[in-house]
Amino acid sequence: MLTSLAAIATALPQGALAQQSITAVHALHSSPELQAPDVEEGISYYLYVPSRVDPTARPLVVVHGISRRAHVHLATFAPLAEISGRILIAPLFSKARCKRYQQVVVDPCQADEALLATLRTVAAKTGHDMGRIDLFGFSGGAQFAHRFAMVYPERVGRLAVASAGWYTLPDYQGAFPYGLAGAVKGRERFRPKLPGFLAIPTLVMVGERDLARDSSLRRSPELDRRQGLTRVERAARWAQAMRQAAADRDIQAEVAFRVLPACGHSFEECARDGGLVDLVMTWFAEP
């Protein structure tokens, strides 16, 4: 089903950010409609092509949470994508096909392969290289983003994750997707790539009010013990675990942790009040 520009505008946060996003969406050279996959393994996606593409700037992929509001992510990042000359892609992992896309390799749709197929499609459509991307994810999208980068560190230039409910720890104390021990998929696909993953410059963010232990937050005695009780605590512990795993391997890691002010577990709120978009785009502006 196509999503119109009016629907995108209606879903945007209010105020100046919304107006800038609408202006940028009007400037699209490609259609703001939901793009259908060109190949069987691909998924639908939104595509923003700025008026002037900077060929030296890595494309930006932004991944939604379980509410699957990919069009809001596209419209929110569009103004700065226009300014920076970055091609912007917002994939849509449908609930019907990719219910557990967050875990990357355990869903029948194989979410990692679906994104790779989409990148090939966009490369063919735009004529621009999609070999390396900058990758952002919010909530469930943050789960997908860091696990995708674990499998394909050579495809990710810089990584930014916000408000993940839980993480795959870079150690062998728990079975995948909690850690890299035990499960065959964890051993064969993640463990060999761990040094490359730890070398990716990574920004970890969470809203200061993201403290609720609600139904969308995975909970268990072991998970709570190792990662913490809230998304804030879990984000801080994962960032520290990344630094420690890199230090143990003599890898010069760049891992930053930021608490976003005045927001909880809401992408729109963190973009409007917490400075999320500026932080992400500043992070991605580095080589």
Write the layout of secondary structure elements.
Blueprint: H1 5-11, H2 16-26, E1 45-48, E2 60-63, H3 70-84, E3 88-91, H4 111-126, E4 133-138, H5 140-151, E5 156-162, H6 184-190, H7 194-198, E6 202-207, H8 221-227, H9 231-248, E7 255-260, H10 267-273, H11 276-284
Parallel strand pairs: 2-3, 2-4, 4-5, 5-6, 6-7
Antiparallel strand pairs: 1-3
Low-confidence stretches: 1-23, 27-31
Rough outline: globular
Q: Report mean pLDDT, rounded to a whole number.
A: 87
In the sheet with the most strands, the strands line up as 1-3-2-4-5-6-7
Q: Count of helical segments?
A: 11
How many domain regions? 1
- Indicate the proportion of strand residues: 5-15%
Q: Which structural category do the helix and sheet elements fall into?
A: alpha/beta
User: What does the oligomeric state look like here?
Assistant: single chain
Largest beta-sheet characterization: 7 strands, mixed
CATH architecture: 3-Layer(aba) Sandwich
Q: Give the class-level CATH name.
A: Alpha Beta
Helicity, as a percent range:
25-40%
